[in-house]
């Protein structure tokens, strides 16, 4: 009886994780049956590799969603701006890598700080603010590229991190694993994580308890911007060059990954493992549509459909409780 009860509690605790895993397995079974040769070690490693970029951008979303139910639409062009600026500085040299990292932190941090200030202190909607900042970043990219062109190349270290591998496992997957462990520790084992979830769950109660709600929400946006900037460097290393709109395609999937992972858009939750699994669901779905020859139209249709289905599922589950 005790064992059954503990099993039930454990199943309920990891329910969303199990659902995401089951979805991935289901998609692979469908792919193997309908396409053939869809399941292999190489295919799975490549799926996780490409899902890594969605997952890292989704970490940006998780931070601002957890802290206040906000959305950051500027992450794509923050990453693009950092990549364009860094490509000119690096010029294939490891010696300049520290400058590129500094640019990622400074540019991403500044964009995040502006977003956070306008959302937390001026009380503007995060969708409007971050969309505006995305347009500003895009404008800077256009002006910069028109004057200086888009050139340069990543350093060998960046190339190794993003395109190299240890055995059959790409290096970028090891990086995702490290980021996942760090994120879970921060969200569940540190005071910062407790504060983020507390103000996200109930900002008014947190404010009455003396927590600096506005500061914490602002810092969540700053962290989001810095992470987006660093992901821009990784994309530069992976693609070998910077170009306009190189990261804009990741914005909607990064939000979808959070939803598919079962994280409440109202805030107060920070399970990054589920978000990573959500990113893998989206990437597996994309691979399946590519195998069917449906292209981008099919991919976005699939992402939209699965996003709606997951939203309906979790809303109905919440109402039933």
Secondary structure tally, helices: 14
How many angstroms separate the termini? 24 Å
Poorly predicted runs of 5 or more residues = none
Helix percent band? over 70%
> Which range does the strand content fall in?
under 5%
Shape summary: globular
Multimeric state: single chain
Strand order of the largest sheet: 1-2
Structural class: mainly alpha
What's the helix-strand series?
A: HHHHHHHEEHHHHHHH
Query: How many strand elements?
Result: 2
Largest sheet: 2 strands, antiparallel
Q: What Rg do the Cα atoms give? A: 20 Å
Overall mean pLDDT:
88
Structure, described:
This protein has 321 residues and is mainly alpha-helical. It has helices at residues 2-13, 15-34, 41-68, 75-90, 97-120, 126-148, 156-163, 171-189, 191-201, 203-208, 213-239, 251-260, 272-291, 295-320, and strands spanning 165-166, 169-170. It has a two-stranded antiparallel ribbon. A hairpin with a 2-residue loop joins strand 1 and strand 2 (169-170). Helix 3 (41-68) runs parallel beside helix 8. The two termini are 24 Å apart. The model has no long low-confidence stretch (mean pLDDT 88). It is found in: Cell membrane. InterPro entries: ABC_transp_permease. Its main location: membrane. It is a multi-pass membrane protein.
């Amino acid at each position: 009886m005790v064992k059954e009860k503990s099993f039930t509690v454990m199943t309920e605790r990891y329910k969303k994780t199990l659902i995401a895993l089951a979805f991935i397995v289901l998609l692979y079974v469908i792919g193997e049956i309908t396409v053939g040769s869809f399941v292999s070690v190489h295919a799975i490693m490549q799926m996780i590799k490409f899902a890594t970029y969605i997952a890292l951008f989704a970490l940006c979303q998780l931070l601002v969603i957890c802290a206040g139910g906000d959305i950051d639409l500027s992450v794509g062009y923050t990453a693009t701006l950092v990549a364009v600026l860094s490509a000119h500085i690096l010029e294939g040299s490891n010696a300049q890598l520290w400058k590129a990292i500094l640019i990622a932190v400074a540019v991403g941090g500044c964009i995040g700080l502006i977003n956070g200030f306008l959302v937390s202190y001026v009380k503007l909607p995060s969708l409007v603010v971050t969309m505006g900042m995305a347009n500003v970043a895009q404008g800077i990219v256009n002006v910069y590229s028109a004057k200086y062109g888009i050139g340069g190349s990543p350093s060998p270290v960046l190339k190794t991190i993003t395109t190299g591998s240890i055995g059959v496992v790409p290096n970028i997957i090891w990086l995702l694993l490290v980021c996942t462990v760090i994120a879970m520790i921060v969200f569940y084992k540190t005071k910062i994580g407790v504060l983020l979830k507390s103000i996200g769950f109930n900002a008014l109660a947190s404010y009455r308890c003396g927590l600096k709600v506005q500061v914490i929400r602002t810092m969540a946006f700053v962290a989001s911007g810095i992470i987006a900037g660093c992901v821009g460097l990784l994309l530069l290393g992976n693609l070998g060059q910077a170009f306009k709109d190189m990261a804009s395609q990741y914005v909607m999937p990064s939000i979808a990954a959070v939803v598919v992972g079962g994280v409440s858009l109202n805030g107060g939750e920070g399970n990054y493992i589920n978000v990573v699994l959500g990113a893998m669901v989206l990437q597996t779905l994309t691979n399946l549509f590519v195998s069917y020859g449906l292209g981008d139209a099919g991919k976005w249709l699939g992402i939209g459909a699965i996003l709606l289905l997951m939203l309906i599922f979790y809303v109905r589950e919440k109402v039933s409780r």
